[in-house]
């Protein structure tokens, strides 16, 4: 690992002033007048103050969303026109791409090269993909018995509350907004308290794209206050949440105790990444590395249990450690940087705590293990070998640049151990043997399985978790069902 040297900035961090709540097409202060700071994770310094929503503000946002859903121009607009406006939003993102990428890197700390090459293109593609669905989501005619004409309609579920995390702020906004807009819903979004800035900028662009007032409302604030006000609100029809498992359980409880609002959850994982001895080893090293260290290890689908077949284990580990030395940790705005800071002091402490746990549990610390520098939240890319299934670092989501390597002997054993987790978000397999690849793809209980690749995403293909990794599928045609109710109509022909 080397610390990125002289900054070679091609894009500068944008200037951001005070930010307000976006409710009913207007920028407003919170009713309490309270604000909170959003910090630059690379320095730990305040970027700006943001208005802090609480239940009274959420209530105003829900009222605006309800009105827009029931009587506004959105309700009357054709599906095709909705699609044109979602495409216009995507156009505006393209037009403002460097600025959005820089704002994302400023607020989140991710390397600018990742914001430019991953977050922005994937987000834009999600809007375009769902823009295309607007006038293509439709019901059926059903040949029922008797003299009736029976058909179904796919109607928008209504006002949706959306609560997103800080690891991919723009992309999570896109995964939530695009299918909700495509199906004709209206939205109250709460971005993560660590990263509210790009969602607010997107609200501004949505207005420029002629998305009518009240269709999108953005209420930055904290989980137990603004977040809980959304999950327990009696006039929100559905809540979509991405974040920690235990928070997902609170979301579901609140939905159950209030109005049984529909719930979709995308929670974390402890995804097995399995490398067989017959794999293309260099490709597998790169895939294993990227699959864990991408986005500072802050990915729900990180390949955080790396299973390596016994007879190549030592050679493979040596290559991985050499790969870690090439990581450039530093200023997110330096285009040579490949690893930025963690999101916050809290996450940094949590990850350092897990590194201590790994050492005290007896895993071998091969590389890294320390913080980098004294300002901001940088951590060295860290690799443990000799990790055992029952160690906490092999069971719990670390959400940081900490790789755990486990040794295995054969196919049956790795399937059984790979599935020995409450999670089921993703899995990957590296092998040239097509039978082994299919066998594992078939038997690993995970929402996505990658064979000889990792972290491949496309707006057209669904993503979500088995078991405690979540409920429902985002992306692709499948996500439309998260935002629609099916209505059955019988017409008496007699
Ligand atoms: P979190 O689940 O607490 O936060 C995610 C979102 O939920 C934020 O917008 C937050 O304000 C909101 N929230 C928190 N408490 C809430 C409540 N009671 N009701 C409604 N909304 C609430 O995650 P946090 O604390 O930021 O990170 C903790 C751990 O969660 C991470 O270390 C990681 O393991 C996991 N995580 C997983 C993510 C994923 O993509 N699956 C994303 C972020 C975190
Ligand atoms: Mg939390």
Q: How would you characterize this protein structure?
A:
The protein is α/β, with parallel strands linked by helices and 494 residues long. It is 37% helix and 21% strand. The strands form seven sheets. A seven-stranded mixed sheet has the order 16-19-20-14-13-21-22, with helices on both faces. It has a six-stranded mixed sheet with strand order 10-9-8-11-12-23, with helices on both faces. A three-stranded antiparallel sheet has the order 6-7-24, with no helix packed on it. Strand 9, helix 7 (197-208) and strand 10 (216-218) form a beta-alpha-beta unit. Helix 3 (79-95) runs antiparallel to helix 5. It is globular and about 75 Å long. It starts with a strand and ends with a strand. The model is unreliable at 1-7 (pLDDT under 50). 1,4-dihydronicotinamide adenine dinucleotide is lined by residues 163-167, 190, 192-193, 222-224, 227-228, 231, 242-244, 247, 250-251, 266-268, 300, 347, 350, 397, 399.
What would you say about this model in short?
With 494 residues, the protein is α/β, with parallel strands linked by helices. The chain is built from 15 helices and 24 strands.
Largest sheet properties: 7 strands, mixed
Strand content: 15-25%
Q: How many strands appear in the DSSP assignment?
A: 24
CA distance, first residue to last residue? 78 Å
Q: Which key phrases capture this entry?
A:
single chain, six-stranded mixed beta sheet, about 500 residues, disordered N terminus, binds magnesium ion, globular, alpha/beta
């Amino acid at each position: 690992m080397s610390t990125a040297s002289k900054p070679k900035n091609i894009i500068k961090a944008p200037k951001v002033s005070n930010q307000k709540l976006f409710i009913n097409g207007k920028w407003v202060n919170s009713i309490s007048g309270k604000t909170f700071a959003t910090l630059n994770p690379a320095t730990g310094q305040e970027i700006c103050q943001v208005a802090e929503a609480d239940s009274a503000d959420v209530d105003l946002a829900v009222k605006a969303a309800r009105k827009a859903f029931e009587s506004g121009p959105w309700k009357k607009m054709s599906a095709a026109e909705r699609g044109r406006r979602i495409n216009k939003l995507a156009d505006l993102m393209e037009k403002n791409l460097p600025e959005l990428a820089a704002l994302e890197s400023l607020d989140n700390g991710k390397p600018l090269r990742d914001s430019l090459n991953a977050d922005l293109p994937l987000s834009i593609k999600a809007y375009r993909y769902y823009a295309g669905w607007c006038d293509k989501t439709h019901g059926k005619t059903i040949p029922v018995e008797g003299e009736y004409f029976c058909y179904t309609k796919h109607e928008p579920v209504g006002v949706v509350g959306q609560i997103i995390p800080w690891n991919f702020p723009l992309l999570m906004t896109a995964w939530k907004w695009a299918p909700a807009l495509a199906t004709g819903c209206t939205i109250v979004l709460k971005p993560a308290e660590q990263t509210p800035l790009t969602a607010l900028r997107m609200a501004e662009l949505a207005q420029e794209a002629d998305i009518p007032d009240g269709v999108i409302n953005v209420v930055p604030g904290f989980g137990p206050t603004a977040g809980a006000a959304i999950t327990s609100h009696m006039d929100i029809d559905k809540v979509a949440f991405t974040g920690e498992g235990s928070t997902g359980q609170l979301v579901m409880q609140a939905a159950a105790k209030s109005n049984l609002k529909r719930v979709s959850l995308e929670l974390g994982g402890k995804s097995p990444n399995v490398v067989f001895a017959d794999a293309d080893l260099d490709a597998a090293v790169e895939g294993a590395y990227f699959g864990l260290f991408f986005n500072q290890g802050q990915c729900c689908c990180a390949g955080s249990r790396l299973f390596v077949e016994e007879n190549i284990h030592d050679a493979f580990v040596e290559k991985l450690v050499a790969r870690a030395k090439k990581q450039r940790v530093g200023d997110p705005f330096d285009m040579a940087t490949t690893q930025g800071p963690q999101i916050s002091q809290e996450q940094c402490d949590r990850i350092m705590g897990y590194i201590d746990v790994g050492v005290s549990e007896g895993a071998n610390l091969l590389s890294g293990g320390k913080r980098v520098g004294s300002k901001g939240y940088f951590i060295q890319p860290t690799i443990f070998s000799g990790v055992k299934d029952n160690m906490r670092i092999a069971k719990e989501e670390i959400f940081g640049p900490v790789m755990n390597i486990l040794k295995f002997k054969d196919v049956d054993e790795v399937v059984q151990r790979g599935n020995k987790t409450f999670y089921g978000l993703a899995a990957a397999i590296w092998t040239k043997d097509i039978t082994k690849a299919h066998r594992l793809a078939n038997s690993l209980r995970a929402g996505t399985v990658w064979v000889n690749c990792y972290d491949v995403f496309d707006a057209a293909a669904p993503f979500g978790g088995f078991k405690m990794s979540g409920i429902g599928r985002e992306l692709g045609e499948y996500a439309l069902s998260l935002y629609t109710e099916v209505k059955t109509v019988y017409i008496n022909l007699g």
